[in-house]
Design brief:
Aminopeptidase, 4-stranded antiparallel β-sheet, alpha/beta, 9 helices, Alpha-Beta Plaits, single chain
């Protein structure tokens, strides 16, 4: 089902069809983080065809493109999309645009984000030629959002925020119906880090654990007691949590191993608590490991802070969406425990991320991101283009 018609919409039927085809092409050819060479070239070529001067970012993936002349009196508005896919098999067996690459798919909607930003760029380029673009705009097609450290840091290092006053983005949300967006002032996502523990000991016979270091017991205690201890060391309102995704140790029932590994994620709703988390996690791990005489090597990898939406930027998105689709197309959204490296841009300039509805009208089945059967109502592409265009004209 298509999205509701926009009020005084800027997206032609021909461009709408082109963007859906563009999205499906990207969906058939997913590329993982920092490998988005084909995707980058497709974006660059289409923008150049429209008379723009896109530039590939220094790492060879990602594109930045300015629309409208530099104006010393007015900073640019930036609009951002992410390009990369996930190492997740595509389970949409009957879809004509199903991934052609084994084990990879656009299971997070970045193909949609990219198509939306391309469409907004094409519309804004046309408006600029007509003298109707009131401020200069920068398109940022960013690589490698799905890995740590993410591609936002690469893009920032390349200067994409130079001369930028505000930045906006959307992210697909399968819980929100197509034609609607979710908005929230303040934190809308969580901080997300990675934690890996490597435990080593002399090993031994399971009949004599007192003569060696029982690494399996030490790993089990760290896996259970570290999250529990943090719950009593940090304000519960900060939402600091550790969830393990991998634990490995040993090969035989009667042998105490010499090596064990635990790996998981650290998530936090509060920015201050997130900044303090590494020191606290190290302290508690050392205390627990010492009880079991386990040597523990800790790798704490910073990921992303929470996406903290600036109030004025949220109101600009609200005004733009209302102008295009009416106030009833906006809903409040909760803070997610998912991470998004758009947060790094907001550490530098104000801005906001909106949740873009991609659920088909009438669909009541549960859906989530990062799953092989993830798909969208493609009417969401037109909604995203209208939103980006409207906010560029308003701000």
């Amino acid at each position: 089902m298509d999205a509701p018609a926009a009020r005084a919409g800027v997206l032609s039927q021909d461009l709408r069809a082109e963007l859906i085809a563009f999205r499906r092409d990207l969906h058939r050819h997913p590329e993982l983080a920092r490998q988005e060479v084909r995707t980058t070239e497709k974006v660059r070529a289409r923008l150049e065809q429209a008379g723009l001067a896109p530039k590939v970012l220094p790492n060879g993936t990602g594109v930045v493109c300015d629309i409208g002349p530099d104006d010393p009196a007015r900073k640019r508005l930036a609009l951002r999309a992410d390009l990369d896919a996930l190492p997740v098999p595509d389970m949409k067996k009957d879809a004509p645009y199903r991934s052609t690459v084994d084990g990879r798919s656009h299971a997070c909607g970045h193909d949609v984000h990219t198509s939306i930003l391309l469409g907004a760029g094409l519309v804004l380029a046309g408006l600029n030629e007509q003298g109707r673009l009131t401020r200069p705009v920068r398109l940022v097609f960013q690589a490698a959002e799905e890995i740590m450290p993410g591609g936002a840091l690469d893009a920032i290092k390349a200067g994409v925020l130079n001369g930028v006053e505000r930045i906006f983005a959307v992210h697909c949300d399968p819980k929100v119906t197509v034609g609607r967006i979710g908005l929230r002032q303040g934190p809308i996502t969580s901080a997300a880090d990675r934690l890996k523990l490597v435990l080593d000991g002399p090993g031994g016979h399971s009949a004599r654990p007192h003569l060696t270091t029982d690494l399996v017991m030490a790993a089990a205690k760290l896996a259970t007691e570290l999250p529990a201890a943090l719950n009593r060391r940090v304000d519960p309102r900060a939402g600091l949590s550790i969830v393990w995704g991998r634990i490995e140790a040993g090969h035989a029932a009667n042998v105490i191993p010499q090596h064990a590994e635990i790996e998981g994620t650290v998530r936090c709703l509060d920015t201050t608590a997130w900044r303090d988390a590494p020191d606290l996690v190290h302290e508690v791990i050392d205390q627990i490991a010492a009880i079991y005489r386990a040597k523990c090597e800790i790798t704490y990898q910073r990921g992303v802070p929470p996406v903290d939406n600036e109030a004025a930027s949220v109101e600009l998105l609200r005004e733009a969406m209302t102008a295009r689709f009416g106030a009833q197309a906006i809903e409040d959204t909760e803070q997610s425990l998912g991470g998004e490296d758009f947060s790094w841009y907001l550490e530098q300039v104000p801005g906001a991320l909106a949740r873009l509805g991609v659920r088909a009208v009438g669909d009541t089945a549960p859906h989530d991101l990062h799953q092989g059967d993830f798909d969208v109502d493609e009417g969401a592409i037109a909604v995203g283009v209208e939103l980006f265009t409207a906010v560029a004209l308003l701000s």
